[in-house]
């Protein structure tokens, strides 16, 4: 799976073969190999941009495109499995798992460097990059599947551990949307009972 497979055209340090279909970009050079493809040029993105590809009751799929230095704050994915693949660029990921049950009242507990999946994570783009994300099942607030943001405070006496506390999203944080222009998705799911 590469960026072009989901209609994403930006390639860090390269860019050969891109064909822009984004109205926000004037870069419209088409190479013979890309002529048949519609690619969204993400070069000019200055904010984290989500390209939504698909959602059904079983999963959702999309691509987060990051400008260099952008961060998705620490957040969780309760009752979901998250599969992520970096399509291009370089990204720093820190993740935690709960090691004690959240206390009553506020959602506060102790996280640790991941031992079973790291379902609480923060992502920072080192270079412009794109991340394919699959959430299974998808977000559903009424079913207890919504993200919460956290702050993390290292525990000096326990290297690798931190206290996580529910936090507000940073005020200037915003994810914008961009259209999916890649190949049509055909979904054929066989579930094993
Ligand atoms: Fe996430």
Question: Could you characterize what this model shows?
Answer:
- Mean pLDDT is 82; it is low at 12-30.
- The strands form 2 sheets. This protein has a 6-stranded antiparallel beta sheet with strand order 3-7-5-6-10-9, with no helix packed on it.
- The chain has no helices and 11 strands.
- It has 193 residues and is an all-beta fold.
- The protein has 2 domains: 1-44, no CATH class; 45-176, Jelly Rolls (Sandwich), CATH 2.60.120.
- The protein is globular and about 55 Å long.
- 0% of the residues lie in helices and 37% in strands.
- The protein binds fe (ii) ion (FE2).
- Residues 75, 77, 82, 121 line the site of fe (ii) ion.
Key attributes of the depicted protein:
single chain, 193 residues, mainly beta, Jelly Rolls, 6-stranded antiparallel sheet, 11 strands, 0% helix, binds fe (ii) ion, RmlC_Cupin_sf, EC 1.13.11.20, cysteine dioxygenase, iron, metal-binding
